[in-house]
Protein backbone atom coordinates (compact mmCIF):
# COMPACT_ATOMS: atom_id res chain seq x y z
CA UNK A 1 0.00 0.00 0.00
CA UNK A 2 1.12 3.56 -0.71
CA UNK A 3 1.19 6.07 2.11
CA UNK A 4 0.51 9.76 1.62
CA UNK A 5 1.03 12.13 4.52
CA UNK A 6 -0.33 15.56 3.58
CA UNK A 7 0.28 18.72 5.62
CA UNK A 8 -0.04 16.95 8.96
CA UNK A 9 0.36 18.96 12.17
CA UNK A 10 -0.06 18.02 15.80
CA UNK A 11 0.16 19.95 19.08
CA UNK A 12 0.27 18.76 22.66
CA UNK A 13 -0.71 21.36 25.25
CA UNK A 14 -0.39 24.21 22.71
CA UNK A 15 3.10 23.03 21.80
CA UNK A 16 3.43 22.24 18.10
CA UNK A 17 5.36 18.94 17.86
CA UNK A 18 4.59 17.97 14.24
CA UNK A 19 4.75 20.87 11.82
CA UNK A 20 3.01 20.65 8.46
CA UNK A 21 4.65 17.40 7.33
CA UNK A 22 4.09 16.07 3.79
CA UNK A 23 5.66 13.01 2.15
CA UNK A 24 4.75 9.84 0.24
CA UNK A 25 6.00 6.27 0.39
CA UNK A 26 5.22 3.67 -2.28
CA UNK A 27 4.19 0.08 -1.83
CA UNK A 28 7.09 -2.17 -0.99
CA UNK A 29 9.42 0.62 0.10
CA UNK A 30 11.25 0.82 3.39
CA UNK A 31 11.40 4.35 4.77
CA UNK A 32 13.28 5.29 7.91
CA UNK A 33 12.49 8.20 10.18
CA UNK A 34 15.70 9.82 11.40
CA UNK A 35 16.06 12.56 13.93
CA UNK A 36 17.27 13.38 17.41
CA UNK A 37 15.43 12.28 20.51
CA UNK A 38 12.24 14.29 20.93
CA UNK A 39 12.12 15.39 17.27
CA UNK A 40 8.70 13.81 16.73
CA UNK A 41 9.30 10.37 15.18
CA UNK A 42 7.06 8.41 17.55
CA UNK A 43 4.34 11.05 17.34
CA UNK A 44 4.45 10.87 13.54
CA UNK A 45 4.10 7.08 13.66
CA UNK A 46 1.20 7.34 16.12
CA UNK A 47 -0.50 9.82 13.78
CA UNK A 48 0.02 7.53 10.78
CA UNK A 49 -1.42 4.45 12.48
CA UNK A 50 -4.38 6.51 13.68
CA UNK A 51 -3.64 6.13 17.41
CA UNK A 52 -3.90 9.91 17.84
CA UNK A 53 -5.78 12.39 15.66
CA UNK A 54 -3.99 15.03 13.61
CA UNK A 55 -4.93 18.68 14.23
CA UNK A 56 -4.54 19.39 10.53
CA UNK A 57 -3.80 17.49 7.33
CA UNK A 58 -4.58 13.94 6.27
CA UNK A 59 -3.03 10.49 6.06
CA UNK A 60 -4.05 8.20 3.21
CA UNK A 61 -3.23 4.53 2.62
CA UNK A 62 -3.80 4.21 -1.11
CA UNK A 63 -7.03 6.16 -1.57
CA UNK A 64 -8.44 5.59 1.93
CA UNK A 65 -8.02 8.12 4.69
CA UNK A 66 -6.81 6.71 8.01
CA UNK A 67 -8.08 6.19 10.67
CA UNK A 68 -10.63 3.78 9.23
CA UNK A 69 -11.82 0.46 10.69
CA UNK A 70 -11.27 -1.42 7.44
CA UNK A 71 -7.62 -0.29 7.37
CA UNK A 72 -6.85 -1.65 10.85
CA UNK A 73 -6.08 -5.14 9.61
CA UNK A 74 -3.65 -3.73 7.05
CA UNK A 75 -1.49 -2.13 9.75
CA UNK A 76 1.17 -3.79 11.86
CA UNK A 77 2.71 -1.75 14.67
CA UNK A 78 5.63 -2.47 16.91
CA UNK A 79 5.74 0.19 19.64
CA UNK A 80 8.92 1.47 21.27
CA UNK A 81 7.74 0.20 24.66
CA UNK A 82 6.49 -3.37 24.41
CA UNK A 83 2.73 -3.69 24.76
CA UNK A 84 2.71 -7.30 25.94
CA UNK A 85 0.86 -9.15 28.69
CA UNK A 86 3.36 -10.26 31.34
CA UNK A 87 1.09 -12.98 32.74
CA UNK A 88 0.58 -14.66 29.38
CA UNK A 89 3.06 -16.92 27.61
CA UNK A 90 4.64 -15.88 24.30
CA UNK A 91 2.09 -18.05 22.50
CA UNK A 92 -0.73 -16.68 24.66
CA UNK A 93 0.19 -13.13 23.72
CA UNK A 94 0.22 -13.98 20.02
CA UNK A 95 -3.15 -15.75 20.30
CA UNK A 96 -4.53 -12.62 21.95
CA UNK A 97 -3.21 -10.29 19.22
CA UNK A 98 -4.32 -12.69 16.47
CA UNK A 99 -7.80 -12.65 18.02
CA UNK A 100 -7.91 -8.86 17.72
CA UNK A 101 -7.38 -9.24 13.99
CA UNK A 102 -10.06 -11.95 13.81
CA UNK A 103 -7.67 -14.48 12.33
CA UNK A 104 -9.08 -17.96 11.89
CA UNK A 105 -7.81 -20.64 14.30
CA UNK A 106 -5.94 -22.52 11.58
CA UNK A 107 -4.23 -19.48 10.02
CA UNK A 108 -3.40 -18.19 13.49
CA UNK A 109 -1.68 -21.48 14.36
CA UNK A 110 0.38 -21.39 11.17
CA UNK A 111 1.32 -17.72 11.58
CA UNK A 112 2.23 -18.11 15.29
CA UNK A 113 4.61 -20.91 14.35
CA UNK A 114 6.15 -18.86 11.52
CA UNK A 115 6.41 -15.64 13.53
CA UNK A 116 8.04 -17.39 16.51
CA UNK A 117 10.57 -19.02 14.17
CA UNK A 118 11.43 -15.67 12.56
CA UNK A 119 12.21 -14.07 15.93
CA UNK A 120 13.82 -17.25 17.28
CA UNK A 121 11.46 -17.72 20.20
CA UNK A 122 10.02 -21.13 19.30
CA UNK A 123 11.62 -22.88 22.26
CA UNK A 124 10.33 -20.17 24.62
CA UNK A 125 6.75 -20.17 23.37
CA UNK A 126 5.29 -21.57 26.61
CA UNK A 127 7.29 -19.26 28.88
CA UNK A 128 5.51 -16.39 30.64
CA UNK A 129 6.51 -12.99 29.28
CA UNK A 130 7.30 -11.73 32.78
CA UNK A 131 10.30 -14.09 32.68
CA UNK A 132 11.55 -12.74 29.33
CA UNK A 133 14.62 -10.54 28.89
CA UNK A 134 14.22 -7.10 27.28
CA UNK A 135 15.49 -8.40 23.95
CA UNK A 136 13.10 -11.37 24.02
CA UNK A 137 10.17 -9.02 24.67
CA UNK A 138 11.27 -6.88 21.73
CA UNK A 139 11.34 -9.96 19.49
CA UNK A 140 7.91 -11.09 20.67
CA UNK A 141 6.57 -7.60 19.98
CA UNK A 142 7.87 -7.90 16.44
CA UNK A 143 6.21 -11.31 16.06
CA UNK A 144 2.91 -9.75 17.20
CA UNK A 145 3.28 -6.90 14.68
CA UNK A 146 3.80 -9.21 11.67
CA UNK A 147 1.39 -11.96 12.77
CA UNK A 148 -1.56 -10.91 10.59
CA UNK A 149 0.67 -10.25 7.52
CA UNK A 150 -0.04 -6.50 7.41
CA UNK A 151 0.46 -4.54 4.19
CA UNK A 152 2.04 -1.67 6.15
CA UNK A 153 4.41 -2.23 9.02
CA UNK A 154 5.34 0.53 11.49
CA UNK A 155 8.37 -0.18 13.64
CA UNK A 156 9.43 2.21 16.38
CA UNK A 157 13.10 1.48 17.08
CA UNK A 158 12.61 -2.27 16.52
CA UNK A 159 16.13 -3.54 17.19
CA UNK A 160 17.03 -1.76 20.44
CA UNK A 161 18.45 -4.38 22.81
CA UNK A 162 18.81 -7.01 20.08
CA UNK A 163 22.25 -8.50 19.39
CA UNK A 164 23.88 -7.91 15.96
CA UNK A 165 23.36 -11.46 14.68
CA UNK A 166 19.63 -11.48 15.32
CA UNK A 167 19.39 -7.87 14.14
CA UNK A 168 20.80 -8.99 10.80
CA UNK A 169 18.24 -11.82 10.67
CA UNK A 170 15.41 -9.46 11.48
CA UNK A 171 16.49 -7.03 8.77
CA UNK A 172 16.69 -9.93 6.30
CA UNK A 173 13.10 -10.63 7.23
CA UNK A 174 12.13 -6.98 6.64
CA UNK A 175 13.69 -7.27 3.17
CA UNK A 176 11.62 -10.41 2.51
CA UNK A 177 8.47 -8.55 3.61
CA UNK A 178 9.43 -5.65 1.35
CA UNK A 179 9.83 -8.04 -1.61
CA UNK A 180 6.31 -9.29 -0.96
CA UNK A 181 5.04 -5.71 -1.21
CA UNK A 182 4.87 -4.72 2.47
CA UNK A 183 5.53 -1.02 3.05
CA UNK A 184 7.75 -0.49 6.09
CA UNK A 185 8.23 2.66 8.16
CA UNK A 186 10.95 2.37 10.76
CA UNK A 187 12.36 4.85 13.25
CA UNK A 188 15.95 4.13 14.12
CA UNK A 189 19.13 5.47 15.64
CA UNK A 190 21.18 2.56 14.28
CA UNK A 191 23.32 3.84 11.40
CA UNK A 192 23.73 0.48 9.67
CA UNK A 193 19.97 0.20 9.38
CA UNK A 194 19.63 3.40 7.34
CA UNK A 195 21.38 1.86 4.34
CA UNK A 196 18.81 -0.97 4.40
CA UNK A 197 16.11 1.59 3.61
CA UNK A 198 14.96 3.00 0.27
CA UNK A 199 13.98 6.40 1.60
CA UNK A 200 14.68 8.48 4.66
CA UNK A 201 12.78 11.29 6.34
CA UNK A 202 14.98 13.62 8.38
CA UNK A 203 12.96 15.15 11.18
CA UNK A 204 14.14 17.97 13.37
CA UNK A 205 12.02 19.70 16.00
CA UNK A 206 8.79 18.47 14.40
CA UNK A 207 9.65 19.56 10.86
CA UNK A 208 10.53 17.38 7.89
CA UNK A 209 13.79 18.93 6.76
CA UNK A 210 14.74 16.35 4.12
CA UNK A 211 12.88 13.54 2.41
CA UNK A 212 14.55 11.60 -0.37
CA UNK A 213 16.06 8.28 -1.30
CA UNK A 214 18.87 7.23 1.03
CA UNK A 215 21.22 7.20 -1.99
CA UNK A 216 20.42 10.83 -2.84
CA UNK A 217 20.65 11.96 0.76
CA UNK A 218 24.06 10.35 1.15
CA UNK A 219 25.27 12.11 -2.04
CA UNK A 220 24.37 15.43 -0.42
CA UNK A 221 26.53 14.79 2.64
CA UNK A 222 30.17 15.86 2.84
CA UNK A 223 31.65 12.39 3.28
CA UNK A 224 28.88 10.05 2.10
CA UNK A 225 28.59 8.55 5.55
CA UNK A 226 25.28 7.82 7.19
CA UNK A 227 26.24 9.59 10.43
CA UNK A 228 26.54 12.78 8.41
CA UNK A 229 22.79 12.68 7.77
CA UNK A 230 22.23 13.50 11.42
CA UNK A 231 24.70 16.38 11.31
CA UNK A 232 23.04 17.50 8.09
CA UNK A 233 19.76 17.59 9.93
CA UNK A 234 21.05 19.91 12.61
CA UNK A 235 22.94 22.10 10.08
CA UNK A 236 19.81 22.67 8.04
CA UNK A 237 17.80 23.38 11.14
CA UNK A 238 20.34 26.06 12.10
CA UNK A 239 20.01 27.66 8.68
CA UNK A 240 23.22 26.24 7.21
CA UNK A 241 23.38 24.87 3.70
CA UNK A 242 23.97 21.22 3.02
CA UNK A 243 27.50 20.94 1.65
N1 LIG B 1 1.24 12.57 24.78
C1 LIG B 1 2.07 13.63 24.79
N2 LIG B 1 1.78 14.72 25.53
C2 LIG B 1 2.60 15.80 25.53
N3 LIG B 1 3.74 15.88 24.82
C3 LIG B 1 4.10 14.82 24.07
C4 LIG B 1 3.28 13.65 24.02
N4 LIG B 1 3.88 12.76 23.17
C5 LIG B 1 5.00 13.35 22.72
N5 LIG B 1 5.13 14.58 23.26
C6 LIG B 1 6.21 15.55 22.97
O1 LIG B 1 6.34 15.60 21.57
C7 LIG B 1 7.72 15.76 21.21
C8 LIG B 1 8.11 14.64 20.24
O2 LIG B 1 8.14 13.41 20.97
P1 LIG B 1 8.36 12.00 20.26
O3 LIG B 1 8.22 10.94 21.28
O4 LIG B 1 7.48 11.93 19.08
O5 LIG B 1 9.89 12.13 19.78
P2 LIG B 1 10.87 11.02 19.20
O6 LIG B 1 11.57 11.65 18.03
O7 LIG B 1 10.11 9.77 18.94
O8 LIG B 1 11.89 10.79 20.39
P3 LIG B 1 12.76 9.47 20.79
O9 LIG B 1 13.79 9.28 19.70
O10 LIG B 1 13.38 9.86 22.09
O11 LIG B 1 11.80 8.34 20.90
C9 LIG B 1 8.51 15.77 22.50
O12 LIG B 1 8.73 17.10 22.86
C10 LIG B 1 7.57 15.09 23.48
O13 LIG B 1 7.80 15.54 24.78
From TrEMBL:
Keyword presence, Nucleotide-binding: yes
MF annotations from Gene Ontology: ATP binding; ATP hydrolysis activity
Keyword terms, alphabetized: ATP-binding, Nucleotide-binding
SMART domains given in the database record: AAA (SM00382)
The UniProt record lists the keyword Zinc-finger: no
Domain ABC transporter: 3-230
Gene3D superfamilies, sorted: P-loop containing nucleotide triphosphate hydrolases
Transmembrane segments: none
Protein name: ABC transporter ATP-binding protein
Record organism: Jeotgalibacillus proteolyticus
Amino acid sequence: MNIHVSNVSKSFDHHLVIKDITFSISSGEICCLLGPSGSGKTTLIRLMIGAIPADAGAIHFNESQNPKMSLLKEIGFMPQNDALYDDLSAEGNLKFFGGLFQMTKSSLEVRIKEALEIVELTEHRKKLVKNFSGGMKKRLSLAAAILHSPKILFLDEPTVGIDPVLRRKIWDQFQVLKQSGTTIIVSTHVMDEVTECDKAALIYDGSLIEFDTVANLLKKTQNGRVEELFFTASKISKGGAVQ
